[in-house]
Amino acid sequence: MNSQAISDLDASVRTVFAEVYSGQHFGAPAPDLADDTVLLDTGLDSLGFAILVTRLEEDLGYDPFSLATEAFYPRTFREFVDFYAAHAPA
Amino acid sequence: MTLHASVASVEGGRTALVSGGVRLDFGDLTAQAAQIAPKFAGRRVLLNLSDPVAALRALAAMDGQAAAVVLSSPALDAQTLLDFIVPGNIDTILTDRADLAAAGVTVVSDPAELHDAEGLPASTDWVMTTSGTTGAPKLVRHSLGSLTRSTRTDQTRGAGQVWGLLFDYTRFAGLQVVLQSLLSGATLVVPPANLPLEGKLADLADEGCTHLSATPTLWRKILMTAGHEALALRQITLGGEIADDAVIGMLTRRYQDARVTHIFASTEAGVGFSVTDRRAGFPASYLTDPPSGIGLRIADGHLHIRNTMVGDSYLGGGARLAQDGWVDTGDAVAMQDDRVMFKGRSSGVINVGGDKVHPEEVERACLSHPAVRLVRVYAKANPIMGALVAADIVAEDGAEAAAGGAGPLREAIKAHAAARLARHMVPAFIRFTAAFETNAAGKLVRDSGKDKT
To answer: Which of A13, B128, B155, B260 is exposed most, by the fewest CB atoms within 10 A?
Structure first.
């Protein structure tokens, strides 16, 4: 994935995250995401996280959580974006 | 053998239970249970304790004394609990909450407050509460024997085992962990319920937890939580939801020294079975050569399980459960090559991260919004929670325009549902459609067992 594609992906994740976060918090604005922000510490719980992943699957056309063969799940925002980048269909 | 006799047979110096700074060894547990045991003779007890130490002590005391113990979750509301009194024929409530009172029923927080019972020691019915298929919890009768049919009781092996409990001990999966730990003389660690997951994992790691059981959803969350690396696990168990290959594979890679097992269990059947080959579903060979003496068969696309020891009815006169010992688990299954794969609940009940959602209840909430003419609620497969709730909606004419578009109307319906339903029940996805397929009887077609994506 080239740097433009990664930056598009980064933007997509931020947008969908903000929508899902607001949807789960009665319209409250989502917190800013830094590279080392732990997603499950943002106030987005497992249910919100699950909705985020399905929304991204609808937007991006794939779900890396069903494809992954690594020994870890992403925790921080940067790991999350990298996880999607690593599993993007060729 | 009663639970008390089992506990008494373990070396007294072994630690039985660790919870929130309290440590109880098997000797103390045996002695404390013996002291209160006669209080329970012949009683029919509703047990509702949030303190796991008190609960374990009471269970060890009651088995073989009380006529019945109804295990109820501290998470249930008072009215739901009081509704168990009549069908359970309850005469005594043991609880550490203050909102349970009923005429003619003795309510105590400490068994020592009970008058000596007038009844005779009895063989105890262990009554589990199940959310059933219509929403209202039901009571299902078991015995210690039926609940521990597949429990290992090798106390030599149990000596080095430390079991972690992340489930509610009153639910089937949690009770299995409790009984397995006690009967094998292992140590049970129950992290305080009010700790965040990170704290619970730290607690389990500090106590040297070797055996841990959780739903696939909770396992995924554990793998995303700091500190999970510190767990030195030897046995990983997944239960309560369908386990997929992704989560099984992830756990296998992350905890290379651990055996990874997924279990299938139904409260109705009273037992389950485990699959240890690290693949989703179970081998088709189980249908002809089933594990540990149970029977498995597929009929009308449902998995049926045989357990001759289950009580054959719901307490309070519900439908009969067992026919010739076969129990319909209500799980839709399908053959896929050499595997039997779980496809969801035949009733259409959606399992969202281990919490059951009845589509009808969600549909009623959506229909109470004035812009909704028709609605169909279904499961949408999800790699984190197993499934999420989705809804197809036929809106009233002009409703979309009046709301300012499909987006605003979608959000308005979600907000409407959110005010009436628990969070996990609110449709996460709403799609507007022009019409629905109905069957000859004019009922909505609910393609149960098939996840829509």
So the answer is: B155
Q: Which of B70, B270, B71 is nearest to B169 (CA)?
A: B71
Q: What percent of chain B shows pLDDT beyond 90?
A: 66
Strand B92-95 to strand B211-214: parallel, antiparallel, or no bridges (unpaired)?
Answer: unpaired
Q: Which helix (H) or strand (E) holds A51?
A: helix A46-60
CB atoms within 10 A of CB B339: 18
The dihedral sign for the CA sequence B203, B205, B207, B213? positive
Please tell me which residue of chain B has the smallest CA distance to A24: B423
**Two tokens, residue B3:** 């639970």
CA distance linking residue B71 with residue B52, whole number of Å: 12
The angle at the Cα of A73, spanning A69 to A78, to the nearest 5 degrees, equals 115
Comparing CA positions, the residue from B341, B358, B337 lying closest to residue B349 is: B358
**Please, which residues 15-74 of chain A have a Cβ atom closer than 8 Å to chain B?**
23-24, 26, 38-40, 46-47, 49-51, 53-54, 63, 65-74
Q: Is the dihedral of CA B54, B60, B64, B68 positive or negative?
A: positive
Asked if A47 lies within 8 A of B424 by C-beta distance, the reply is yes
> Which residues of chain A does B408 touch, with a Cβ-Cβ cutoff of 8 Å?
none
Query: Which amino acid appears at position A57 of this protein?
Result: E
So what's the ipTM on this one?
A: 0.90
How does pLDDT run across B96-129, given as a tens digit for each residue?
999 999 999 999 999 999 988 778 888 999 999 8
- Report the distance separating Cα B189 and Cα B203, nearest Å: 8
Place of tokens 């026919």: B323
* B444 pLDDT more than 70: no
